[in-house]
Amino acid sequence: MFRDTRRVRQLLGLMILTSFTLITIDYRAGANSPFRGLRSSVGTFFGPIERGVSGVVRPVGNALSTLGNVGNLNKEVRKLRAASAAVEQQRHTNEDKQRQFDDMGKLLKLVNGGQYRTIAAHVIGAAPSNFTWTVTIDAGSDRGVRKDKTVVNGDGLVGRVIEVSKFTSTVLLAIDVESTVAARLSYTGERGLVKGNGPKDMQFDVTPATTEVRSGQPVVTAGSTFVPGVPIGEVMATRAAPGDTTRSVVLKPYVNFSNLDIVGVVVQQERKTDLDALVPANPAPSPSSPAIPRCPVSTAPSSTGSSSASTPAATPTVPMVPCLGSMPAPVSGAAAAASSPATSPTPATSSSP
Amino acid sequence: MTGPRMALAGLWLVTAIAVQGALVSRFTFFGAHPDLVLVVVLSIALYDGPLAGALCGFAAGFAVDLLSDHVLGVGALVLCVAGYATGSVRDYYDRFSATTPIVIVAVASAGTTVVLGTVLKVLGDARVTWSGMAADVPRIALYDAVLTPFVFAAVSALNRRVDPAVREW
Questions:
Q1: By the number of CB atoms within 10 A of the CB, which of A68, B96, B134, B159 ranks highest?
Q2: Contact B123/A23, CB-based, under 8 Å?
Q3: ipTM entry
Q4: Which of A26, A54, A132 sits opposite B73 (nearest CB)?
Q5: Which of B26, B61, B74 sits opposite A125 (nearest CB)?
Q6: Do B77 and A19 touch (CB under 8 A)?
Q7: Does B43 have pLDDT greater than 60?
Q8: If DSSP codes are grouped into helix, strand and coil, which group holds residue A25?
Q9: How far lies A101's CA from each of A3, A104, A242, in Å?
């Protein structure tokens, strides 16, 4: 019956015509596409299925992911061995600082109480395309996720929500080429834009071009679409041609985007500026400490990191990293420990002529 | 394409899309991941011919479009044509050897990915670059070829069970 090639060809023509119509409508409508609702409902249909499959195959996936990363793992082992020796040395000097740090942590929680409400979610899928860097998470509008909400994990910025269906949402990862994040250098505070570069390191265009940038210097979100103060990555290298208005910085993200699992969606952000956050929201419990930074990036346990720990909020330009309430690990701890920028900040290049 | 076989094809596609999203797409191997949905569409086309290939390609492509954030209809168009073309190739063979489907899927995967990337680029998708495609397409084709023996064998075996009257391969 399927030797009837004429009818088959007619059907094929019909489908091609439909495709072109869809492309035309969707392309011209852009963000106001009439297919928004359809996309969302297909997400709602596949979300639970993907969640089920994801639960069953997670161990398999982790094993496969390990296989794909054997080369990196060897490098990682060597790096970790070296790092652990250094950490062991530092541990002794850090015990006293740890006590101070703990005390401050309590205060920080106090200050930070109710600052951001974060919900945890599992990554249950990724876009079924080789050209897109998005993931699906198992939290949707039913749990208060909305478009453009910031997504983080214990290491730093993951991305932002671009699609929401009932039980799932799609997150545009910060490494997607279409992702642009307003950011600023920690310590010095110059602002710029972080752009994703797919599997390669991110790019951070900072103005002015004369900005002095040190390798290992953390970069945090500056807060427009994104909540402010979330660590994004650390400076790897920098280049600025004479006459450029911006300095182009290669940025290594803190988050490992190849094996995202648990992430947090910042679902509620109070209307406060960074500076407001320096003042306790509820001054009653701690009237003696009027100015406390949230989580200064530079207070990682390190031998030279005492400067900002002992003088909190002396300089308002020190970037503050919010302690995200329900996240498994403190945001700044992992980020700063990975980079330990305070120990040996070597200039990547001198400022441009 | 009889009713039961159409239902079976639908089930295959839903499974492929779910597994692709939940497992395959989440892990990249040296920068790319296999396109399981495409392998399933091409396997159905190879088993069932151009009509089934075109219909499944259109449906799967449309679903992938809806689940991705690129322009709607691109995947439907490209996968529909890919399914039709692959299904037509079948008529040149009396019987497949073990390696024929693998070679066909590898070639079709490379072609489909290049066309898909080109169409997306023409429509202004900044994520598609020629250099990126040049690096990824051989890998995608290789990964898809590796998956083919398993997927094609499974598609054929199930189809044969559901409808033994189909032309045997």
A1: B159
A2: yes
A3: 0.85
A4: A26
A5: B26
A6: yes
A7: yes
A8: helix
A9: 77, 5, 43
DSSP assignment string, A240-283: --TT-SSEEEEEEESS-GGG--EEEEEEEE-S--HHHHTS-SS-
Q: What is the dihedral of CA B107, B112, B114, B118, to 10 degrees?
A: 160
Concatenate the DSSP letters of all residues of A124-159 into one string. Answer: EEE-SSTT--EEEES--GGGT--TT-EEEETTEEEE
Whole-angstrom distance, CA of residue B19 vs CA of residue B13: 10
pTM, full prediction = 0.56
B27 at interface of A, judged by CB pairs closer than 8 A: yes
Measured in angstroms, the CA of B20 and the nearest CA of chain A are apart by 6
Q: How far apart are the first and last CA of chain B?
A: 16
Contact criterion met (CB < 8 Å) for A133 and B74: no
Q: What is the pLDDT of residue B83?
A: 94
Two tokens, residue B6? 């159409």
CB contacts of A162 in chain B (<8 Å) are 69
A39 to B66: CB separation less than 8 angstroms, yes or no: yes
CB distance B13 to B62 below 8 Å = no
Distance CA A25, CA A240 (A): 42
**Does B33 reach chain A within 8 Å, measured CB to CB?**
yes
Residue A285: per-residue pLDDT? 44
pLDDT of residue A294: 44
Q: Does residue A208 have a cis peptide bond before it, meaning omega lies within 30 degrees of 0?
A: yes
Mean pLDDT of each 10-residue bin along chain A, 353 residues long? 72 92 87 82 84 76 69 80 80 66 52 62 80 87 89 85 91 90 84 86 84 84 80 83 78 85 75 48 45 42 40 39 41 41 42 40
For residue B126 the two structure tokens come to 């900044």
DSSP state of A121: E
Chain A contact for B26 (CB, 8 A cutoff): yes
Task: Among B23, B28, B74, select the one facing A258 at the smallest CB separation.
Answer: B28
B88: nearest CA partner in chain A:
A5
Whether the pLDDT of residue B95 is over 50: the answer is: yes
Extract the tokens encoding B73: 């209809």
**If 0-12 CB within 10 Å is exposed, 13-18 middle and 19+ buried, where does residue B29 land?**
middle
Whether residues A18 and B73 touch (CB distance < 8 A) is answered with yes
Residues 6+ apart with CB under 8 A from B100: B93
Smallest CA–CA separation between A111 and chain B, in Å? 37
Q: Which of A2-6, A164-168, B88-92, B141-145 has the lowest mean pLDDT?
A: A2-6
Q: Which residues contact B79 (CB under 8 A, 6 or more apart)?
A: B37, B38, B41, B57, B58, B60, B61, B64, B112
**Can you tell me the distance from the alpha carbon of B91 to that of B161, in angstroms, rounded to the nearest whole number?**
22
Name the residue in chain B with its Cα closest to that of A43.
Answer: B67
| Of residues A16, A61, A134, nearest to B27 (C-beta) | A61
